[in-house]
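Invent a record, attention on tokens:
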Amino acid sequence: MEALITVVGFLGSGKTTLLKYLTTHFIDKGWNPFVILNDYENAYIDAQQFTKQVELQSIKALSGSCICCSGIVELRNIVNRIPERPNGVTLIEANGTSDACSLMEFLGVGINERFLPPIQISVVDVKNWQKRDEHNDLEANQIQVSSLLVLTHLENITSNRYSEVLIELKNFNPMAKIVTIDNLDVTLLPELLPTNNTAKKLDHLKAHWASCSVDLPNLPNTNCIHIICNTLPKSILRVKGCTKIGQDEKYTYFERKPDGEIHIRPFNGIPVTGAKLLCIGVKSEPSILENAIRKSLTNIK
């Protein structure tokens, strides 16, 4: 039977990084992963990041749907159409605001019998855990029905902070195993069992956020990226973009995480939907994104 593993976690916690790690290590161990990525806007950009590891026909992007409610039927249909293959394992990355408890409740119904009961892995950003203000309930919800918690963003974390977060995680989910990526043995994941932990019900509206995307022109230099990210309001908790920089023929990917950190890296290939700027959170409106782009182009250094 094939393992069905969902990866959840708050915006910017490191879900895609973990998914790449799992995919690489499953392949190295002789497994055949199928990857499903869900995002509010243009999941195809994230999906293309996996084409160096997994053949295109083994990757599915699911954009614009809340897979913990309105998109669950589409997700089930995708899963049930996955080709059967030797040593198969299916990995699903949920968007960063998913109601993880509802997702597990709904995903376990109507799945083909060749799949094992779904299990959930939560990615926990130790640096920013429960520092989300009004979004703390959502972040806590995302670990309560997980069988495994993977700790990320451990750089420069004090021992007191680390211990404090561990205690809180165990209070929310005393049944989950807690590891870092360095201590994660992927061969044990298909043997994980669904948790029996009792979860606190979340107001599902807290999992529904505004989002939008606009076309992004070629940018003269990387300073424009910083201007765009710093111009967009802090209420927009997730910023992603992909475009060409200067005379470079290849594309560049960038993101602003909820804590304001900006990361820039090469993009794998050509974005199938063209160069885009994507945002999630309050004030994610085309006019605001377009104003940030204009400002970056008029402040060229």
